[in-house]
Amino acid sequence: MAGGAIVNTAGGKDYPGKLTLFVFFTCVVAATGGLIFGYDIGISGGVTSMDPFLKKFFPEVFRKKQEAKTNQYCKYDNQLLQTFTSSLYLAALVASFFAATVTRVMGRKWSMFGGGLTFLIGAALNGAAKNVAMLIVGRILLGIGVGFANQSVPVYLSEMAPARLRGMLNIGFQLMITIGILAAELINYGTNKIKAGYGWRVSLALAAVPAGIITLGSLFLPDTPNSLLERGHADEARRMLRRIRGTEEIGEEYADLVAASEEARQVRHPWRNILKRRYRAQLTMAIMIPFFQQLTGINVIMFYAPVLFETLGFKGDASLMSSIITGLVNVFATVVSIFTVDRLGRRALFLQGGTQMVVCQVVVGTLIAARFGTSGVGDMPKGYAAVVVLFICVYVAGFAWSWGPLGWLVPSEIFPLEIRPAGQSINVSVNMFFTFCIAQAFLTMLCHLKFGLFYFFAGWVVIMTVFIGLFLPETKNVPIEEMVLVWKSHWFWKRFIADEDVHAGGSQLQMASSNNGNGKKGADA
Questions:
Q1: Contact of 376 with 73, CB cutoff 8 Å
Q2: Which parts of the sequence belong to the Major facilitator superfamily (MFS) profile domain (predicted)?
Q3: Rounded to two decimals, what is the model's pTM?
Q4: Which of 140, 354, 370, 522 is most buried (CB neighbours < 10 A)?
């Protein structure tokens, strides 16, 4: 490989620099953008299992819940109730496309600020809701906030972090999501005990706390060197790069950033550009990874956890307590991924986590089938229920150190600068679209597929694990603007990338394949 690049074993350069306190704190503040998404996932399931909330807004569900002989699988099957949960994700899907423009034109931090502020207004509306319409408008505003934050935060973290620690710092976003979920579940547990029946208002209004944290925090965040260069602030970008790397020796990395930003500036239409053949690998991952992430079935466990555990025969408080247990597992397993992702790599975690999830889903489905059969009528002894919760926890752990964090990390680190905001928007919108579909359909699917729902998701986890094994190259330790080298050396994706599409430090890299003339031919075929 020519071009003067010092290439590490993973296929990218090793730049000098260390993890400075400045970078650590900016990444922690930015990662708090994950709190709003996590809090919402955790809060909505708990609130929708609270009787005063159901009685006020969804009386039909409340009546069905009171009937003793109700089919356990079907008692929460109500389209309006599902719309309450899922409207947020539809709003986030649409918002992420607008967020791409804001992120590109104004920088990453203002996208985070806008997201936090909108979420704050949505939280106030939900806490004061008088009718279903007010509830759903509040949810839509929350969704716009989530769309902006999820679009900008992972990109910000990937750009600020040194290459060899990018996985660890980026997973801070997922860790904040899991902390948000756990905090919401603990709050639900407490507010459910409020005798006056307004606990649900407290739960929904407290979403203003994580929103306030990211709204204020974003005001103090610096812009990333990549974003500064993209917007034409070259001197500021050099100063910022020097500051975040903690060294004067930034020449090589800065040259690569300049090359990337010059290429980005030539791109007038990133949305049209992303469809070009040379970006086929990145586009495929930006669609398939979030699609698969939702079909792991995790959101079923997370935002319907209390409803699900109540359906499995746990009573009120017990169902909320069980979801707190899974929330704790989620947080601790995400911490495991923070310390392993840059050592073991992305692929190892994806493949191990996938295998663990399949086994657990098959076991849980079988255990539920044995007690409730297809009629959905039955009960679950304490010891038996504990085994179900145990396997759900092992499943959550598998997700939390694989598809959970990596579903956000990998798409945010694989795109070249010229299409990065557009690529991240596709990632967020696909994620939100399928979250919406699952949220809207889950309670109906549970009613009709019964225990088979767990087998349904297990089948998808098998497919996604094979997909990762075949098509995702290892991206650990590769500088973000050097990622094209990884795709160029992959057995399948190399056919889509011509030699002249591969740049490093402003000079073209001649790949080994150029010796036999296959590069150009493959890219145009």
A1: yes
A2: 26-476
A3: 0.80
A4: 354
